[in-house]
Amino acid sequence: MEERVARAMERCKAPPAFSDEEVAEQLRREALLRRERVKEHGVLAYGLPVVPSQNINKGFLLNTIKSVDSHNKRQEIDECWRKRELEHRVDDRSPSRHRSYRRSRSRSRERRRYSPSPKKESPKAKQDDERAFWAQRKAARTSAIIAELNDRACSIENAPNYDSESSSYEDIHAIKVDEEKESKKKKKEKKAKKHKKKKDKK
C-alpha cells in the first residue's frame, strides 16, 4: 500500500510556480477568448464555462488524495498503539520488584491494623464526669455554709446569701426533666381527647 501511495505521489507532483508575467498572459488569452465568444453568443457567453487548456484527471487526483489520507490515518493509529505498548512495558515491573512491593504493602497494612486507635470517650462517661464535678462543687459549698454557721441556730437573719449561681447542676437538670415530663403528659392527654371526639362524631 505504501508503495502505491509513493507512486501516486510521484505521478501527481505539484505544478511549477508561475511568474506574474505568465499569469497576466494567461488572463489576457482568456479575455480574448471571451471577447470572441461575446461576438458570437452575446451576453450568454459569460455564463458558458471556459474550456481548460489542460485535461485534468479528477478521478485520479481524488483517489490519490484519499489513499494519502488513509495512509496518514493508519500511521497515526500505529503510533498510538506503539506508545501504549511502551507505557505498558514501563508499568510492568519485574517479578522481584513486584514481590518486594507487595511485601511492603502487607507490612504497612499490618502496622495500620495493630496501631492503637485513639479511644473515643462515650457520652455516658462525659455525663458521669460532669456529675462528679457538680457533686464536688456542691459538697464544697455545703462545707463552706457549715463553716459559716459554726454551730449557730439557722434563721432568716443569719442565713448565708444563697444566690442563683450557687444552685447545683443536678437540681436544675431535675427541674427541666420534670417540666418535659409534664409537657409530654399534657400533649398525650390532648391527643387522647381529640381522638375520643372524632370517635364520638362517627
Description:
The protein is mostly helical. The protein contains six helices and no strands. It is elongated, with a radius of gyration of 52 Å.
- What is the terminal-to-terminal distance? 94 Å
Number of H/I helices: 6
The strand count comes to 0
Helix content class:
over 70%
Biased composition (Basic and acidic residues): 118-132, 170-183
Biased composition (Basic residues): 96-114, 184-202
Region (Disordered): 88-137, 151-202
Summary tags:
202 residues; mainly alpha; 6 helices
Note the topology:
Blueprint: H1 2-11, H2 20-41, H3 58-91, H4 95-114, H5 123-149, H6 169-201
Helix pairs in contact: 1-3
Q: Briefly, what is this?
A:
The protein is an all-alpha fold and 202 residues long. The chain is 72% helix and 0% strand.
